[in-house]
Design brief:
372 residues; mainly alpha; two-stranded antiparallel sheet; two-stranded antiparallel ribbon; 12 helices; globular
Length: 372
């Protein structure tokens, strides 16, 4: 890690941290607003989801601070990386031995807490690919060099795909392509991989009835608003009802009609209660987070850190864009949460893990003493 030997105390990117924490605070408020009625009916405790989200945020913040404070970038230590991959593969495999939840094998229960390993797989893939591709940059376009990263990506992607979780599997494939591109793999090689991936996922979509139905419903000019289009239709009604300033916090009516309004469709409730201005504030914080994350990637002199920072930043930014696009009805429905905002401890903890890594990289200085 030549060029990144020194760490400046308290020299982390405070703007990035503020943007992330603002999203988390907004998320906690909106989780309570969106879930209070439902939680009262299900658990006889309106604060049920609020307490869980706040607890997840507290644990996540501690995790981010610990990682940010590391003097050595242990997150790129081979033992840590391969250990993380091994644990992730084990947990993904364990999902298949765990009773299905909502007709899918996406979760494991650890110490009484449900955890989704696919969220950890995204981080693990970035941390594995960045140093590997940097170490082999002289032979990057050799098939022998690409076999291992493609095999690791394929194992993780297939385990996630057959849970089933096609949206996250697609993200894993896209993340692999992004990291290969950042590392400098030739475009013609990437094109071949992209075509192969498109054919494979096209076949999977055609075979998976629920996914095919969502895509067909999205493309169809005649929507079934009592069937597959119910949720996106109610989300658009919520966004439209919000107007410029919203109907005020806690006053959403569409949260009574959207299934699980505190998770993937929380942006719809936010837009209804805070209006266009509230939606723009959320977008502003995500843009700020993306700008600072990419700035960290551009300024760090170490290529592996550069790829890690860019990969994690783009991953979070893409998921935010995809989630908001789904709520606005310009993309088919998938199960992607809104980073830092949607209810979900697995997603929240892994977002904080990514944040801690980005802040750690932002603290590092080159040998010339210039902070990056």
């Amino acid at each position: 890690m030549k060029g990144l030997r020194t760490v400046q105390r308290s020299g982390f990117d405070k703007t990035l941290l503020v943007a992330a924490l603002a999203l988390v605070v907004i998320g906690i408020v909106m989780v309570f607003s969106a879930s209070g009625v439902m939680a009262g009916i299900r658990y006889h405790q309106s604060l049920h989801f609020l307490i869980q989200q706040a607890a997840g945020a507290a644990v996540g913040l501690v995790l981010a601070v610990v990682i940010m404070s590391l003097r050595k970038p242990l997150f790129l230590n081979p033992a840590v990386i391969y250990g993380l991959l091994a644990v992730t593969v084990f947990l993904l495999a364990l999902c298949y031995a765990t009773p299905a939840f909502r007709n899918a094998n996406r979760w494991v229960v650890i110490a009484g807490v449900r955890f989704q390993p696919s969220e950890l797989a995204k981080i693990g893939l970035v941390l594995f690919l960045a140093p590997y591709l940097e170490r082999h940059k002289e032979r990057l376009n050799s098939p022998r060099t690409l076999i291992l990263p493609l095999a690791v990506s394929a194992v993780l992607t297939l385990l996630i795909l057959f849970e089933p979780n096609q949206s996250t599997a697609l993200i894993m494939a896209g993340l692999t392509g992004l990291m290969l591109f950042l590392a400098g793999v030739r475009l013609r090689h990437l094109a071949v991989l992209a075509v192969a991936a498109a054919v494979f996922f096209g076949v999977q979509v055609a075979r998976a009835g629920y996914t095919k139905g969502r895509v067909n419903e999205f493309l169809s000019s005649e929507k079934d608003f009592r069937g597959p289009s119910w949720q996106p239709y109610q989300a658009k009604l919520a966004v439209g009802a919000g107007g410029l300033l919203g109907v005020s916090l806690g006053q959403s009516t569409q949260k009574l009609f959207i299934p699980e309004p505190h998770t993937d469709f929380i942006f719809a409730i936010l837009a209804e209660e805070t209006g266009l201005m509230g939606g723009l504030v959320i977008l502003g914080f995500f843009l700020l987070f993306t700008w600072r994350g990419l700035l960290i990637a551009l300024r760090t002199p170490d290529p592996a850190h550069k790829m890690v920072a860019a990969g994690l930043t783009i991953l979070i930014a893409f998921q935010a864009l995809a989630n908001i696009s789904i709520v606005l009805g310009i993309a088919p429905v998938t199960g992607l949460p809104l980073p830092f905002v949607s209810f979900g401890r697995s997603s929240l903890l892994c977002n904080f893990l990514a944040l801690g890594i980005l802040l750690n990289i932002s603290k590092r200085k080159g040998d010339n003493g210039v902070r990056v």
